[in-house]
Amino acid sequence: MKTKKRQGFTLIEMLVVVLIIVLLAGLVFRMVGAIGKGNDIAETRATIEKVSHALEEFKAIYGKYPPVPFYLGRQPTGYEYPTRHGWGENSEDTAKNLVGNGRGTLSEWGHSCTVYTFGLASFFMPRYNGTAERGPQAFCGVNASTHQMKGGVPQWTQFNSRVNGKLGDSDRDLNAVRRILPMLGGKLGADNRIADSGCIVTWESPRPHPLISEGLVTNLNATFRDAWRRELHYVSMPPYETYKLWSDGPDGAEGTSDDIVSGTN
Question: What CA–CA distances, in Å, run from 47 to 57, 113, 226?
Fold first, then answer.
């Protein structure tokens, strides 16, 4: 007995198969997207938890949460600091000429702008060891020949420790960093410089300032980021007994329901 030979799929059958494949692919993509989103949220929560532990340790040591100064109406998370690039040790005259004469005054580099800000990250790492100690002396307010304090960018003279009359890291601050940095997954080396920054993200700034674009100053940055590579937000108002630390969450919009928040206020 002969069987009837099948002539292949009909157009309707092929369309049904294609539709099924499309539906299955959509389900897979949604599942993968949900898993990825969940991983990002978990990673961000882990970072915020580390920073929250560091904040509590800071309060235990200093009796308050980090008193981050305001720049343009906000308390930044990032710490931005300059280092010399091709500057000699005796660069005071060069700095004066470039910064003070026709290239912007020192006050214009100061507290009123966002250049060289002391954000939250600056309270968890040495400010001079391995960072600002390599900066242009004019910004630090030090005379190259006499090594005496004389002016400088406001926040560099107002928001730093003074050791024997000179800007620097005090023993208390360095010991605090040794206790706090491991909570962020980092560590301080025997030379009091950062050996591992942990979840503190560091990078070189592309800021197009004339001094930087000419290769005279390199701006380095340190901050905390969420899984979407966005900076965390931090707020703590005087007397610095409460704080709020948060990420804008998956949607990237501040103040929405998916924000990831930690804090005591």
Answer: 16, 28, 7
pLDDT at 88: 40
Q: Report d(CA 201, CA 256) in Å as an integer.
A: 25
Q: Is residue 222 part of a domain?
A: yes
Least confident among 100-109, 191-200, 232-241 = 100-109
208 occurs within a structural domain: yes
Closest CA to 114 of 74, 161, 83: 74
Q: Are 223 and 201 in contact (CB under 8 A)?
A: yes
* 11 domain-assigned: no
Asked if 245 contacts 75 with a C-beta cutoff of 8 angstroms, the reply is: no
Structure confidence by residue, pLDDT tens digits, 128-155 = 776 666 665 556 665 555 555 555 666 6
Domain range for 158 is 44-263
Q: Does residue 14 fall inside a structural domain? A: no
| 260 in Cβ contact with 247 (< 8 Å) | yes
**Predicted confidence (pLDDT) at residue 104 exceeds the cutoff of 60:** no
Cα-only R_g, the chain = 26
CA distance 67 to 98: 32
As for how many domains the chain has, the answer is: 1
Q: Would you put residue 243 in left (φ > 0), alpha (ψ -120 to 50) or beta?
A: beta
172-192 confidence digits (pLDDT tens): 999 999 999 999 999 998 888
Q: Which two tokens stand for residue 36?
A: 């990825």
